[in-house]
Amino acid sequence: MGLKSALKLKKDRKRFRWKDKRYKVKAIGLYAKFDPLKGANQAKGIVLQKIQKEAKQPNSAMRKCCKVQLTKNGKVVTAFIPGNLAQKFIDEHDEVMIERIGGNKGRSKGDIPGVRFQVLQVNDQPLHLLVKGKIEKGRR
Fold first, then answer.
1. Fewer Cβ in 10 A, N or C end of the chain?
2. Structure pTM?
């Protein structure tokens, strides 16, 4: 381009940014719109059922998960239960706090297909302390 063409170049960059998918998603706010947590880091919910997900190849493990209905909007999500034998501390109709696992671009992490969240607390008790045996599960 020639001299004094910076304004046109700047204008074109601004216009053609909308062809970039990542820019468009960020500018319109599509992630927060379709995110079950609505942009929040954590959310509370009620456990509907405990399930097991089969890990992706080459692993053959059964990952312990649970279906959680969020209290803020009623959406049902699948949450991973971290820790050895941690699923024993979670029953149906318990109140749990979930957070994102932190996979790439908001997707699932590791070998657990379709699971984007993990359980933090059960009935306001931290799950990792329940697994260690330092505290007992609270009554509701």
1. N
2. 0.80
